[in-house]
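Researcher: If only I could read backbone structure tokens as easily as an amino acid sequence. Walk me, if you will, through where the backbone shape changes along the chain. I have put the entry right below:
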Amino acid sequence: MNYLYLSVLSTLLATSAQAQQITLSANDQTDLSVTFYSQNLGLIQERRTLGPLSDEDTVIVKDISQLMDPRSLQIQHAGKITAQSLNNSVISYQSLMHNYIGKELILVKDNGVNGDEIRQKVKLLNLSGNTVIVELNNVIESIPLHSDVWRFVFPSKPDNLLLQPSLTFQSEGKTGTDNIQLSYLSNGIEWQMDYVLELNKNRDKLQLKGLASLFNNTGITFRNADIKLIAGSISQPQQRSSEEADTNMRMMVQTSKLSVTPQPTGDLQLYKLPHKTTLYSGQQTQVPLLQADSVNAKASYRYQFHVTPYLDNRQIKTNPGSFLTFVNNSASGLGIPLPAGQARVFSPDQNDGLQFVGASFLAQSAVNEKIELATGKAFDLSISQRQSSHQKAFDGAVIGIVLNINNSAGDDKILELSSSFSHDWEIISSTYPTIGKSGAVANWSIKLAANSATIFNLKVRLKTKN
């Protein structure tokens, strides 16, 4: 009987000795790649050193994103996975309070005399919104969760609360020494594009610089990571609310020039940074991504007015809009897919210093697309508009419109003028010939000499009856 007991005990001890708890940290990483999307989403792919496993072993993976989506987790080269779990019970004020419900903790108050404190043991009964319910000397009291008078002291850290989240998995085991690969989606990762456009004095050429801002709010540091940026929109199974970037986050600007060639990836565009990069948690990193030194551009001014068959005694005084236009092709000096982002435009002054002259959102642009940026309103161009005549006709009305246009700038300018009509229309007379008609819109292009004024008269028939 003693032999049988010793045999069973030896078997149990041998099995227990074989079962191991293996912990992998960031120090075990051999390769790391992070793909940034512009929708508070990232794809993290990494390899870590892991030797042979038995089916009894438990692997704990530390230094993972606090905002991991466990439904997207894939573990490869670790044998057939039998169980995996995300341990996300991280220590915080709220988690400590919930863990101490039904237990004793300490209330502390500074009595203001020689720095002494008043300490009182209480039993935590419940939490209700921002109110804590405690039992003190057999009496139930309510205390604000966040108080300037009292603070809570917790006697010890609960065993189930972690300093950082971790991943635990078990498998059927593996005999090889190849590294395991982890892949998962995570929130807290995002990038955005910003452009700087520098016009020349003639406003017919520009230099385009694209700067990518990378945001890491995952709670971990990406060390020596291959960084990839995805431009375009994707559909997600479940949209989670974005977390605002910390306004006090550190910013690191990498000023080295980068030459990045975008690659089509499905219906998206992928930009891979040529060098490995370290991104600290809570840090915004900026890297030069795109640059084109001489792009053909056109600076123009636009004004659109609306014509109705009704009597209108108003006089409108305004300034036309200022626009910058260029084509995204190689003939214009560009010809690369452009991610969406804010574009800030700078123009030289008389002393060759660059001055900020406006900003606009640059929508994502494929090759050969025309890009138009509204940068503000022209200061030296002014327009005064009024209805000059109104005559009823058998089938509607004949309307006269007059525009007094003044160019007080020292150079010639081109004004692109357009009119939209509320009814079927026919132009009777116009000071300048139309350059295009489509639907309910007519267009004119007017060259304005420096320091000059011109008058534009338009008479149009609007048909209000069939």
